Amino acid sequence: MSRAVSKATAVFAVIVSLLSVWLPMPAAAADPFTGYLMAHFTGESATGEQIYLAHSKDGLRWNDLNNGSPVLVSTVGTRGVRDPAIVRSPAGDRYWIIATDLRIAGGTSWSDAAERGSKSLVVWESRDLVNWSAPWLVNVAGAISGAGNAWAPEAIYNPATGDYVLYWATNTVVNGAYKHRIYYSRTRDFRSVTTPQVFIERSGRQGIIDTQIVEVPGSVGGYRYYRASADGHITIEGANSILGSWTNIGNLSHMGISNGTGGGNVVEGPMWAQFNGRNEWNLWLDQFATGRGYMPITSANLGSTGNFRTRSDYSTGTSRKRHGSILNITAAEESRVLARWGNSVPVNRIQSYNVQDRYVRHVNMDVRIDANVSPAQDAQFRLVPGLANNSGYVSFESVNYPGHFLRHYGYDFVLAPDDGSTVFRADATFRRVAGLADSSWTSFQSYNFPDRYIRHQNYLLRLDPITDATGRGDATFRVTN
């Protein structure tokens, strides 16, 4: 091959590589969907404003995952999250959960939250729907003059531009009207965002907080995209491009359903989900006014609100489901999710052998043994298969801080979020062996320092070699219900 041909070939390869990065990429053909995953919060309780997951096989009947406990807990911003949305990349190799940074249970009033609240969203990232990054904040509303908040985020991949349209509600004054409008930014990574623009505004003083867009294959009903918005009514609109012109199709007032303006069954948080394998959709609506949680209405043609029908053959599981989103999932995704959170792992306490009124607990992320632990969940753990070795080893996952595990650090113990590193997972893995002081009890041997065991000293948990009777007593525990 001549040098000229070789150089031309190299230049062509570079151009192809650049095009693959910057040109809009079509969504990858996915494996068939076999189930459904719902992300939601449960309400204004101590742990209700966190990320919960539920699973369904038929799109109508839901089972709570992780024994009804949160699967992700925010450690940033207000340390509470609401209105989670799950986003899958077009290639199906990356996922994000985005949520409102808000914790009403912490004592914040609704007026403070709306007028002086967080202008950021909380984001988690995963490559498998199971192992999630630490959360981070993305400031989406800071560039909006007079912005009071950033609520109810959603995002959808836009093949026209090769990035994501991230949209949310912000309360501010424009042209003398103080109300919530839907703003949007574009992003590729949910870290850097473009300058926010108004996406949806209703006339007069009518605000809008909740809206969600669904892409419809084959433009069933006449449009490629449909959105449902809580704007006094539940308004349905259609469009052929996400950032183009939207056509009002109608609302649900004829069904006795509204967002307050029309009375009847007052709902919010519209949440779309297509039935797997067929052109039929559920629009789930949160009956917040009566506290009954989500209900579905079904349509096979979204081009007319007259096609929607109510149904009674559904169940939302044990916990109350509040404003969230539903992701259709493949068999591989379903298998991973159920393997991680679908099994009923019992809640345990770890009792000290030689100070039997004391139990292992976390406090301010430190770990010790205490009596009369309050709140009780600080002393509750799930013994899950070892993060570094799941054969004969265990890890201790916190009940009220899911995704956080007991680990040794400098031979001291802390409660920390799994960062996915091999070091963390080794530090958080232990072999369950016969108690060193009493074989009917239990001791826990370190995975990566097998000459050391979990023990307490001055009531603080440590990882030490055990050389005498005192140490053997300190390193002996009972796993109790």
Characterization of this structure:
The chain has five helices and 34 strands. It has 481 residues and is mainly beta. A hairpin with a 3-residue loop joins strand 13 (225-230) and strand 14 (234-239). It is elongated and about 80 Å long. The relative contact order is 0.10. Residues 1-29 have low confidence and may be disordered. It comes from Lentzea roselyniae.
User: CATH topology of the largest domain, what is it called?
Assistant: Tachylectin-2, Chain A
Distance between the termini: 73 Å
Query: Can you list the strand order of the major beta sheet?
Result: 3-2-1-22
Report mean pLDDT, rounded to a whole number.
91
* CATH architecture annotation name of the largest domain: 5 Propeller
List how many beta strands DSSP finds: 34
Low-pLDDT residue spans: 1-29
Rg (CA only): 25 Å
- CATH class of the largest domain, anyone? Mainly Beta
Helicity, as a percent range = 10-25%
CATH superfamily of the largest domain: Glycosyl hydrolase domain, family 43
Strand content: 35-45%
The count of domains is 2
Biggest pleated sheet: 4 strands, antiparallel
Domain Alpha-L-arabinofuranosidase B arabinose-binding: 349-479
Keywords: Signal
InterPro entries: AbfB_ABD, AbfB_ABD_sf, GH43_arabinanases, Glyco_hydro_beta-prop_sf
Protein name: Alpha-L-arabinofuranosidase B arabinose-binding domain-containing protein
